[in-house]
Amino acid sequence: MSVVATDSFLERAPLLFRDWIVGHFPVALQWLVHHLLTITAILTVFGLFFAFTTIAERKLLARLQNRLGPNRSGLPWFRTLKLWGLTQPFADAIKAITKEDIVPAVADQVLHFLAPVVIVAFSLLGFAVLPFGRYLIPVELDAAILYFFAAGTATELAIFMAGWGSRNKYSLLAAMRALAQLISYELPLILSVVPVVLVTGTLSTRDIALAQGGWTWGVLPHWHVFTPWGFAGFLIFLVAALAESNRSPFDLPEAESELIAGHLTEYSGFKYALFFMAEYFGLTALSGLGITVFLGGWQAPCAFLEFIPSWLWFMGKLAGMIVFFIWIRGTLLRLRIDQLTRLAWQFLVPLALLNLGNAAFWALTSGWTGPLALARWAISAAIVIVPFFLLGRRLTAGYAPRTYRYAA
Amino acid sequence: MLGSGILKGLGVTAKNFVGSYHDPARMVTQEYPDTPAKLPEAYRNFPFLVTENATDPMGTLRCVACQICEKECPPQCIYIEKSKDKKPDATGKPQLYPAVFAIDTAVCMSCQLCVEVCPFDAIKMDHVFEVAATNRFEGLLLNREQLAKPNEYFHQIRPTEAAEVDGRLTAERQAAAEKAKAAAAAKAAAPKPTTPVAGVADPGPASPRPATPKPAEGGTAP
């Protein structure tokens, strides 16, 4: 999409900067420089975003548990500058790089080496199709959603490579768990996004973000999350995204109380850090997709806030999603493997399928106006809420509320 | 409802998050090297000797060198040599005092048995834990002068126990003073039977409280 001159300078600034650099190169090389610049920008921005996500996670988790969190690390030659420990990720990175890289003697050397590389590579692929701003979309694909899930699913392969290549029973068990978990949750994840594709009629992330533009009375945004089917889809997406990115309460593949460190058991040093990097990249990319699909992408929530550049809105929403995921991690306990798959197959998948019908109903009744619009909302909400209650009651019967026989 | 527990839990952690910024009572972390560590009153590591007067610590040690703690100490880390002369103790009675009192803190296992067995409240457990030393013998073998700490310090680190000990000791001192008075009175009364007036008055004060003079006599007789 070409830049419109009427947009604010900040909105156009990243593109102007890119074009300025590209302009210095001969025409034959410009396409290459263009793409290399995009890749560099993504790696820099999300590399730093990853670094500060780790410190934010540690700080927030600490505060959620009434602790202080890391606050010691400052700068090497400026001891008086404390910086609230914000330089911790760089210290961590130096530590990870300088640590010894141990490879078990019986491990499959190739797979053991390849797994962390592959997982980071695949987790980065998702960023290619996310619209970070009105004009900031690295690759404009017509089947962007399809591509995103195809690339994201490949990380499961890398986890199994790590588990198999380590030749360690804990690693292998964890890898099998990871496969069971990731395959279980791939279905609700995709099914929660399909309604959006159904309603907007496109697989392109740019068009989905554009479809959520506009406001009612200038304050109520037309984001998908503010429709009954979108809200249900967003909740299912959140749960499935948590599970897909191996985060608490679904962090079974690396359940340290059961499996030492899961598929990371035989990894050390920078390879270990790469797995974590991939995990956070995956989480960030999934959050970005959730924002694009349900939370209006780069759109501002109110008309009068549009002066803030779109890419800032996107990053703000992204930070909000990450904080929410950290909040969840600081609150919930880890599930058992049977509870995990039960939740996916007996609860999320049926609800997601019903939600698909709900979205179809919404798409068919788009012409309803006046009192019929209210009926449309009521019916759509009922399709979401009634099965949630019924299914929830049926599944928790005999499980909750839990009674403790021996505890007071 | 399904999911209500999750919302409740999120509420709890959110309250923690907000509270951790404005309610210092929530925070459990002590930033120890920056701020002094807050120890619970009953914390203990190594023993110290209580002195009555901070200006003359060696003269007012409560310890009477009875050597019970030395014999009781499981790892045998206490070494005591009795003095040749006697000094008045906390209750004013002439007692021996330790000429040498040494505790090898490298051997001490902080069991507090010495404190439990001491009949004079002379040895108590300290709160000092920064005791790292480069030399095992010079740095960790504490002598009498290093072990002696004033009673005010004891009040500072263990207010409850110190108040209880002080109350008991004052009561003992009072009892001893009364006893001394009674003994003085008895001594003053003893040569008086020659005067007839005193002989009438003598059974008067003696007969209402026969319990107190009797142990006093028993105490002074040997």
Beta-strand fraction estimate of chain B: 5-15%
Total strand segments of chain B = 8
Gap between N and C termini of chain A: 65 Å
| Low-pLDDT stretches of chain B | 197-222
State the oligomer.
Answer: heterodimer
Q: How many whole angstroms does the radius of gyration of chain A measure?
A: 23 Å
Instruction: Please give the order of strands in the largest beta sheet of chain A.
Output: 1-2
In the CATH hierarchy, what is the architecture of the domain at 47-164 in chain B at level 2? 2-Layer Sandwich
Number of strands of chain A: 2
Strand portion of chain A, in percent? under 5%
- Mean pLDDT of chain A comes to 85
Task: Describe the largest sheet of chain B.
Answer: 3 strands, mixed
Note the run of SSEs of chain B as H and E: HEHEEEEHEHEHEHHHHH
Number of helices of chain B: 10
Task: Name the CATH class of the domain at 47-164 in chain B.
Answer: Alpha Beta
Helix share, percent of chain A: 55-70%
**Widest β-sheet, arrangement of strands of chain B:** 6-1-8
Q: How many helical stretches of chain A?
A: 13
Which terms would index this structure?
heterodimer; A: about 400 residues; mainly alpha; two-stranded antiparallel ribbon; about 65% helix; globular; B: about 220 residues; alpha+beta; Alpha-Beta Plaits; three-stranded mixed β-sheet; three-stranded antiparallel β-sheet; 8 strands; about 40% helix; elongated
In words, what does this structure look like?
The complex is a heterodimer of chains A (408) and B (222). By secondary structure, chain A is mainly alpha-helical. Chain A has a domain at 104-365 and 375-390. Helices cover 64% and strands 1% of the residues of chain A. Chain A is built from 13 helices and 2 strands; from the N terminus they run H-H-H-H-H-H-H-E-E-H-H-H-H-H-H. Chain A has helices at residues 9-22, 27-64, 88-98, 109-125, 144-165, 169-200, 205-211, 228-244, 256-259, 269-293, 310-331, 337-364, 371-396, and strands at residues 215-216, 220-221. A two-stranded antiparallel ribbon of chain A has the order 1-2. In chain A, helix 2 packs parallel to helix 11. Chain A is globular and about 70 Å long. The mean pLDDT of chain A is 85. With 222 residues, chain B is an alpha+beta fold. Chain B has a domain at 47-164: Alpha-Beta Plaits (2-Layer Sandwich), CATH 3.30.70.3270. Chain B is 42% helix and 13% strand. Chain B is built from 10 helices and 8 strands. Chain B has helices at residues 4-22, 68-72, 113-117, 136-140, 144-147, 151-157, 159-189, 196-201, 203-206, 213-220; strands at residues 47-51, 78-82, 87-88, 94-95, 98-104, 123-125, 141-142, 148-150. Chain B has a 3-stranded mixed β-sheet. Chain B has a 3-stranded antiparallel β-sheet with strand order 2-5-7. In chain B, strand 3 (87-88) and strand 4 form a beta hairpin. In chain B, helix 6 runs antiparallel to helix 7 (159-189) and helix 7 packs across helix 10 (213-220). Chain B is elongated and about 95 Å long. Mean pLDDT of chain B is 81; it is low at 197-222. At the A-B interface, helix 2, helix 11 and helix 13 of A face helix 1 of B.
